Amino acid sequence: MVRRDPDEVDLLVVGGGKAGKSLAMDRAAAGWSVAMVERDKIGGTCINVACIPTKSLVGSARTLTDARHADLMGIELGGEPRVVLAALRRHKESVVGGMVQAHRQLFADSGMDFILGTARFVGPRTVEVAAEDGSTRRIRGRDVVINTGTTPALPPLPGIEDTEIWTSESILRLERLPERLLILGGGYIGCEFASMFALFGSRVTLVQGPDQLLPQEDPDIAAEITEILTRQGVEVRTAARATSVRRESDHGSVLLTLVDGSVLDGDELLVATGRVPVTTELELDATGVTVTDRGFVSVDDHLRTTAEHVWAAGDVAGGPQFTHASWNDFRILRANLTGQDVSTEGRLIPYTVFITPELARVGLTETQARAAGRNFRVAKIGVAAIPRAKTLHDKTGTWKAVVDADTDEILGASLLGHDAGEVIGTVQLAMIGRLPYQTIRDAALSHPTMSEGLNLLFDTLGSEPHRP
Ligand SMILES: Cc1cc2nc3c(=O)[nH]c(=O)nc-3n(C[C@H](O)[C@H](O)[C@H](O)COP(=O)(O)OP(=O)(O)OC[C@H]3O[C@@H](n4cnc5c(N)ncnc54)[C@H](O)[C@@H]3O)c2cc1C
Ligand SMILES: NC(=O)c1ccc[n+]([C@@H]2O[C@H](COP(=O)([O-])OP(=O)(O)OC[C@H]3O[C@@H](n4cnc5c(N)ncnc54)[C@H](O)[C@@H]3O)[C@@H](O)[C@H]2O)c1
Predict the structure, then answer these.
(1) Distance 155 CA to ligand 2 centre (A)
(2) Eight-state DSSP code of residue 351
(3) Is the ipTM of this complex over 0.90?
(4) Which class is 7-149+278-337 in CATH?
C-alpha cells in the first residue's frame, strides 16, 4: 500500500551513518519527532563493513604476529600459530553482530521512528520510502539530513565488469584465505588489507597507480611503509597502471595486465581504488539539492546544502572520509539545528592507517608545509629510541613532526610505529590548544609509554625555551 499523504516530522534522516544515527537518537531523546531511513546496514558502513570488521581482523593479524614472535619475549607456544578461517569469521561477526544489536536497542530506546528501507526524494524535504517489508510511505521533515555515505568505486578497467572481483565489502565475508591475493590501489584500504592478509599468510601483490603508496604522505614515510609491507611479504608495485583484468576460467586465476605488459596472476583480486558518493539514486533534484562534479552533495561550511533546511553530513558531503569526521559533523549539525552557529572551518581531523605497525597523522606533512610556503623545522626520531618499543621488541617506524619556526607551534605530525594512533591525540590536543612544541618536550610524560617518545621527538629541536 502507498500512503500519499506524507508523515510530517521535525527531523528526517536519510541514511543511518555515524552523523545521521547520532543526530536521530539525540534529537528523538530530546523530544523531537524523528524518522530515520536506513537501506540495509543497521549502524551504518563503519560498523557493518568498514572500520569495525577490518580492525577486528587487524587485531587478529597482530595476535598472530605476536604469537610468531613470542619466543623473543621468553614465551614458548606449542606448534606454529595459524589462522583458523571459521574462527576468524566468528570473531569478526561477533564484534559486528554485537554492535548491530546494540544499535537496534539504542534506536528503539531513543524513541525515533527507525525505518529499514530505501529513500528517494519526491518533493521538497520529502522522501518516498520503499520499506523492507514491502510497504511504501512518504515522509516530510521540517529539517532533513542526508547521510548516505560512499560505496566502493570500480575503475574503468577493461574486463572488470565480467570478472568476479572482491571489494572491501565482499572480502570481509572471509569465504577463503587466498594463497595469492592481488590488490589494486595502494591507499588506506589497499595498504590495510595488504598488511593484514600478508600477516595471515597470503602472498600479496599490491598494485598502485601513482609512484608511491599513500600519495598524501611524505615520501620518506611512504618509502618506509613500502619496506615494512615488503618485509611482511607483500610485493609492492608502484607506478603500475593496470590495463585489463580477466579470469582464466570460472574459478581459475585472475589475471591483471599492467601497462608495461606484465601479467600478474592471483587467486583473488581486491579492488581498492577509492569510494564514490551514494547520491545517484536519491533524486536530489526533487528537493533542490545540487551535487559537485564528483557527485558529492554540495555543502557550505555549516553543512547546509543548496536547499533550505536540508543538510548533509559524513562521506556524502565530500569531506574527509572518516567515522570521526562524520561524528564531528553530527556535533556541528546538532549545534546549528538548535540555534547555535558552528562551522567546519579550521577543524583538525587526524587519522590512523591500520597497517602493522600503524601510521597516525594529524595536520600538515613536511611536503604540505613546504608547498604552503611555511617557515618550518622538522623533528624526527626512529621508534627504536623509545624505551617502550624496546621492551616490546617492536622498534619499527619513524616519528616526524613539523613545527612553525617563527611561533614554535606544531603544524603536524606523522607517527609510524607501535600504537601510534593512541599517541596522535596528544599532539592533536597540543595543536588545538596552540601550544608551543616545548610544552610537550618538557612535560614529564609517564615512563615507559609510547607517548613518552614525544619528549624525545621534540628534544631533537634543541633545548631552548619557547620565546613568545
Ligand atoms: C574498509 C574500510 C575501512 C575503514 N576504516 C576506517 C577506520 O579505521 N577509521 C575511520 O575513521 N574510517 C574508516 N573508514 C571510513 C568510514 O567507514 C567512513 O568514513 C564512515 O563510515 C562514513 O560514515 P557516514 O556517516 O558518511 O555514513 P555511512 O556509515 O556510510 O552510512 C550511510 C548509510 O546510508 C545508507 N543509505 C544509502 N543510500 C540510502 C537510501 N537511498 N536510503 C536509505 N539509506 C541509504 C547506507 O546503507 C548506509 O548505512 C573505512 C572505510 C572502509 C571502506
Ligand atoms: N584507517 C582509516 O581511517 C581508513 C581505512 C580505510 C578506508 N578509509 C577511508 O576510505 C576512503 C577510501 O579508501 P581507498 O583506499 O579506497 O581510497 P584511496 O583514495 O585512499 O586510495 C586509492 C588508491 O588507489 C589508486 N588508484 C586509483 N585507481 C587506480 C588504478 N586504476 N590502478 C591503480 N591504482 C589506482 C589511487 O591513486 C589511490 O592512491 C579513504 O579516503 C579513507 O578516508 C579510512
Answers:
(1) 12
(2) E
(3) yes
(4) alpha beta
User: Per residue in 75-85, pLDDT tens?
Assistant: 999 999 999 99
Q: What is the pLDDT of residue 3?
A: 58
357-460 sits in which CATH class?
alpha beta
Q: Which atom of ligand 2 is nearest to the CA of 323?
A: 3
Pocket test for ligand 2, best of 189, 323, 359 (most atoms within 8 A of CB): 189
By most ligand atoms within 8 Å of CB, the mutation choice from 264, 275, 327, 329 for ligand 2 is 275
351 is in an annotated binding site: no
What is residue 314's predicted lDDT score, i.e. its pLDDT? 98
Share of the chain above pLDDT 70, in %: 99
The one-letter amino acid at 361: R
Average pLDDT over all residues of the chain: 97
Q: What does each C-alpha distance from 123 to 140, 282, 367, 434 come to in angstroms?
A: 9, 11, 46, 46
CA-to-CA distance for 337 and 189, rounded, in angstroms? Answer: 34
Residue 264 pLDDT > 80, yes or no? Answer: yes
Looking at domain 153-273, which of 3.40.190.10, 3.50.50.60, 1.10.3720.10, 3.40.190.150 is its CATH number?
3.50.50.60
